[in-house]
Amino acid sequence: MMTFLKSRTSLLLFLFSLFMFVPATTSHADELADKINKLAEGGFNDRQKAINELAATGDSRVVPALEALGDGLLYMQKLGNKVVIVERAGSNFKLTDPITLEALGEMPKGALEKIKVNNRLRRAVRDALGGLQLNSKKPADRMAAAEAVFQSKDPDAIPLLDAAIEKETKADVKKAMLEARAAAVLSSDLDDTAKLDAIKVIETRSGRDSRSILLGFAANAEGKLKSAAEESAGIIERSLAAWAAAQNVWYGLSLGSVLLLAAIGLAITFGVMGVINMAHGEMVMLGAYTTFVVQDVIRTSYPQLFEVSLLISIPLAFLVAGAIGVAIERGIIRWLYGRPLETLLATWGISLALQQTVRSIFGPTNQEVGTPDFMSGAFEIGQMTITYNRLYILVFALVVLAALMLVMKRTPYGLQMRAVTQNRAMAGAMGIRTDWVDALTFGLGSGIAGIAGVALSQIDNVSPNLGQSYIIDSFMVVVFGGVGNLWGTLVGAMTLGVANKFLEPYAGAVLGKIVVLVFIILFIQKKPRGMFALKGRAVEA
Amino acid sequence: MRSYLKTLLGATAIAGVTLAGATAHAAETIKVGILHSLSGTMAISETTLKDVMLMLIEEQNKKGGVLGKKLEAVVVDPASNWPLFAEKARELISVNKVDVVFGCWTSVSRKSVLPVFEELNSILFYPVQYEGEESQKNVFYTGAAPNQQAIPAVDYLMNEGVERWVLAGTDYVYPRTTNKILEAYLKGKGVAADDIMINYTPFGHSDWQTIVSDIKKFGSAGKKTAVVSTINGDANVPFYKELGNQGIKAEDIPVVAFSVGEEELAGLDTAPLVGHLAAWNYFQSVDSPENAEFIKTWKAFTKNPKRVTNDPMEAHYIGFNMWVKAVEIAGTTESDAVIDSLIGVTVPNLTGGYSAMMPNHHITKPVLIGEVQADGQFETVSSTAGLVPGDAWSDFLPGSKDLISDWRAPLSCGNFNTKTGKCGGQGS
User: Which of A64, A177, A312, B88 is in Cβ range 3.0-4.6 Å of B78 for a Cys bridge?
Assistant: First the structure.
């Protein structure tokens, strides 16, 4: 086995260097073409063999074909069984030769057959590419290749890695390669000392993958190696546990920021104006649908603007939801001030009507709202994963809150608003048009709910039911934080978020939610006005 | 608060819509009831089924109807409110005098209408995959039983080398029963209890951060891990978004779902989800002449070239054609005669084969495992060699192992216990 491996890998190396420096001859190209054409034959097992054979050539010219295969863009021409890379161009496909990368013209879909891949094959492709790209000119490719070998733990890659490590100049890529080598060593049949060294290297890498590799290795190892691997896995586990607490706080803050966004608008309409607005959730939903419409227009007419589609949506969502808010206030709510039960029923009716209207216009199914690139993915701090969309939502929620506070405290309009809510008659006597201030305040609360919808479209369904899932939580936050107090809303949202996330691992998502609800009920018994109750005469009004 | 809202919703819906078709000349038409939610939380899935029934009825009428009479659709809206399903079912049967009803989605809505169909002796076609453990005289189950969806999916993953399992579901009867069956099945295959993680979440759960990171953690124990998802409805989109964002790739931890079809994927950017799996008995991507025709008719009917088709739609297609055939065999729409002649009826399905109604009121279907593609479609990566007959009573649960169902005379029993030799036991 050993010698076979060695001879195979040295051959690989030899071939590899050959192709690196000597221009390929036609016969080689034909041979390669045959091997690529083999990808189209048989079932998944045959295809896996064909992939391994291609990887074994060590020829970097097979990279485009393998990449295309992994992406599902490798097709076979039904006539002549030639394998080609395709690019979708309307109803036709643009064909490219997989080796020479020459354009081969266009063909209708029907004349081509897709070479199917499943997860196993995608993994095989990833592993094969890992081996092939270790010598790529781009550091990012080399990094990805090292990562791929780390995942595949392919012992055949060790000689390639050794060669690559020697040449590598970038420190971080080199480190990744050394770690990849260590992972490969653990699944090779090298001697125990090499493996013990490898265990140490992986231990310093830390992280879930490393623990996974060590535990997988320990399961099949014996004696000294087993205990060393288990010990290292234990060390990683302890460092992970410490990070897990930090991660939980982050999840809590992130959930809190979502609650905050959903509740800020309500803090105005319910908190400041005292209107029990059951249609608040639907304002959020309208904001989300505005985002959808904006993206739809951008997709069809101005695709280059997609990255800023959310920024465009924010003011539009504010205007749409705000305008509908003003209309609701002028049309219905102003007749119902001082009659909370009727307001509740009327706004609940409005919410149903809005839901069904949206359902009739856009259909009952979810709409796809795309995520711009800058909001996709995640980055890591230590062992903590922070997803960009959640980070932006947290920042956005705080910005919205700050802006709202500024409006309330520092603008004449904010002053009028506070004056009207504190003493309507007196404010009227001072020349404030109280009914218009009411309408604008309700519009402001609704508009902010619309803005929240833009953010929530990034993490939740955009469906007519979107608002319903937030209305309960929003009321909970506002009541818990203290009616009429924006700081209370902030603290309330964050407290509930973090509490929820700390309960979830122990109690499960279902029970965790119940526990939080019971807690709030008890809390309200004790402090009916919430955490930060308003004091003074305003309360009695 | 929530139940208060529900009551409100109910009250509004009772007062609400009855979209009945033309009312003229009851005797000259055969009435077909459609009992799907057109408002409320389930409207997202059920509205499509109402549309597909209208299309099937229209197509049948173009062919001359049934028994020389035109079909007439009677549509009601039970508004995702379970008790209202029973009321609306009663209204369809006793007031509108329909001869057959196609409807329900959730198991709880089906359970709610069962007594009504039994009492008034009508016929219900139920088109959604469900947890099994039921066989009722008046109900025909055209969706998948667990052995037609869950078990083959788990077998496929086992074949791919999966050793550790996360069973994640929404907290209600279908996921709980399915997971119970799967847990017993996996343990029977030698999977240790430590290698199974079971997790339930509420309906509409939208914050998946903790659970996805738990799955990541569970998957880092050095064994190949997969997630079997019975997460239902609205909760799926945030779940898949979180998976994509936290970088869980299908090559590492695949998720196989039983409630995610083409319709659900339509609301998602599927590029980060390529390779995640779903098990169904039908995919829109299946290449057969019947399917091509069906998709064409559907897109023309809805006047929307982007509309997708899915598995429960195929179930209604099969169920409707079975009913038409059974009525023609029986020569009448009278319930008892149609129920008797339905057993054994065979009609083409959309995947290029035939489905037959069995004596236990379930049908035979092929099982397909598909991987999500970047265009929001599934690509079949595995399909059963032949048709799988639906098993009403799971062989993997202690209470139902010995039960069989056979509605043919002389047995005529939905839960015959082969050990005691008696009809009756649990269930109906």
Answer: B88
Q: Answer whether B2 touches A (CB < 8 Å).
A: yes
- In which band, very low, low, confident or very high, does the pLDDT at A343 lie, cut at 50, 70 and 90? very high
Handedness of CA B113, B118, B120, B124 (dihedral sign): positive
Give the DSSP H/E element, type plus range, for residue A526.
helix A486-526
165-184 in chain B: CB under 8 A from chain A: 171
Q: What are the chain A neighbours of B218 within 8 Å (beta carbons)?
A: none
Say if residues A128 and A55 touch (Cβ distance below 8 Å): yes
What the block records as the tokens of B412 is 């005529």
**SS3 assignment, position B101:** strand
Please name the residues between 205 and 224 in chain B that touch chain A, using a CB distance below 8 Å: 205-207, 209-211, 213-214, 216-217, 219-223
How does A338-348 read in b/e, with b if 16+ C-beta sit within 10 Å?
eeeeebbbbbb
Which of A359, A367, A469 is closest, CB to CB, to B43?
Answer: A359
Nearest CA in chain B to A356: B39
Dist. CA A455–CA A259, nearest whole Å: 12
pLDDT value of position B425:
59
Instruction: Read off the DSSP letter of residue B382.
Output: E
Structure token pair of residue B1: 């608060």
3.40.50.300, 3.40.50.2300, 3.20.10.10, 3.30.565.10: CATH of B147-286+368-388: 3.40.50.2300
**A365, B266: Cβ pair inside 8 Å?**
yes
pLDDT tens readout for residues B178-190: 999 999 999 999 9
* ipTM of the modeled complex: 0.79
Averaged over B102-110, what is the pLDDT? 93
Query: Does this model's pTM top 0.80?
Result: yes
A-B Cβ pairs (cutoff 8 Å, strict)? 174
Question: From the list A126, A213, A461, which residue is nearest B234 (CB)?
Answer: A461
A176 neighbors A150 (Cβ within 8 angstroms): yes
In this chain, the answer to whether the domains covering B2-144+296-363 and B147-286+368-388 adopt an identical fold is yes
> Whose structure tokens read 């590799």?
A213
Q: Hey, where are the domains in chain A?
A: 256-372+436-494+510-540
Task: Indicate the residue of B43, B200, B379 with minimum beta-carbon distance to A510.
Answer: B200
Q: Are B145 and B392 in contact (CB under 8 A)?
A: yes
Contact in structure between B234 and B170 (CB atoms under 8 Å): no
What 3-state class would DSSP assign to A508?
A: helix
Helices (H), B27-71: 43-62
Q: In this structure, are residues B44 and B233 in contact, taking their beta carbons and an 8 Å threshold?
A: yes
Q: Domain residues of chain B, as ranges?
A: 2-144+296-363, 147-286+368-388
What's the DSSP call for residue A110? Answer: G
pLDDT at A518: 93
pLDDT tens digits for range A98-153: 888 888 888 888 888 888 888 888 888 888 887 788 878 888 888 888 888 888 88
Q: Do B269 and A371 touch (CB under 8 A)?
A: yes
- Note which residues in 250-289 of chain B have CB less than 8 A from chain A: 250-252, 254, 263-264, 266-269, 272, 274-275, 277
CATH superfamily assigned to domain B2-144+296-363: Response regulator (3.40.50.2300)
Record: contact A212-B222, CB cut-off 8 A? yes
d(CA B80, CA B40): 5
Q: Which residue in B210, B252, B283, B307 has the most chain A C-beta atoms within 10 A of its own C-beta, making it the best mutation to test that interface?
A: B210
| CB-based contact A223:A465 (threshold 8 Å) | no
Q: How confident is the model at residue A9 (pLDDT cuts 50, 70, 90)?
A: low
Distance CA A41, CA A36 (A): 10
Residue B385: closest CA among B400, B398, B372, B368: B368
Distance CA A269, CA A289 (A): 21
Average of per-residue pLDDT across B64-90: 94
